[in-house]
Amino acid sequence: MGTFQVIDHPLIQHKLTIIRQTKTGTKEFREIVNEIAMLMGYEISRNLPLEDVEIETPITKTVQKQLAGKKLAIVPILRAGIGMVDGILSLIPAAKVGHIGMYRDEETLQPVEYLVKLPEDIDQRQIFVVDPMLATGGSAILAIDSLKKRGATNIKFVCLVSAPEGVKALQEAHPDIDIYTAALDDHLNEHGYIVPGLGDAGDRLFGTK
Ligand code: URA
After folding, report:
1. Which residue of 110, 162, 200, 204 sits with most ligand 1 atoms within 8 Å of its CB, as the best mutation to test the pocket?
2. 159: Cβ below 6 Å to ligand 1?
3. What is the pLDDT of residues 152-202, one digit of tens each?
4. What is 2-41+68-204's CATH topology?
5. Phi first, then psi: what are they for 84, rounded to 5°?
6. The model's pTM
7. Distance 116 CA to ligand 1 centre (A)
8. What ipTM score was computed for the predicted complex, to two decimals?
9. Which residues form the Phosphoribosyltransferase domain (predicted)?
């Protein structure tokens, strides 16, 4: 069974409170989403493998640690996932970025896939799927289905705000993956929005309505 982790560092909680507020405009919202993604990047990269490397300090030769160069991929679910990419890339600049496009059918609330563009060797990469909101879980499940169909085996899901309904659905559909969230909110409302949530993350990131 994958793990479920709420990354509730005080800095993350403080920043999340700012972006939840209606009065926070697009520019600040986008900047803070990036900052939170970077802070989460620190935690989600905690278990990256290290290897020994022999180096010379001004004093002596010594064996120290470096990242083992495991291949990584960040895969945002479009649109809103794009808002989290730069923050994680600032910590892990060598990661490749794939894209999975989903939109939510406003009537059925079901996700529909319209684009999949991934690094060629996606089956060999440690993948971080990113989407700010884990609401019904529909998009996350479909995105991970899509990655597994292409041979991916090592997948983690990273979001800012999650609903218990979405966490349950994702864990049931993909029990092998680790889920990281900055907050576990109360519930979904009848329109599929997370309560209290932060509204429509894509609209707030890109200034659309
Ligand atoms: N997607 C969003 O952007 N916000 C929600 O509350 C739910 C899904």
Report:
1. 200
2. no
3. 999 999 999 999 999 999 999 999 999 999 999 999 999 999 999 999 999
4. Rossmann fold (3.40.50)
5. -100, -5
6. 0.94
7. 21
8. 0.96
9. 6-208
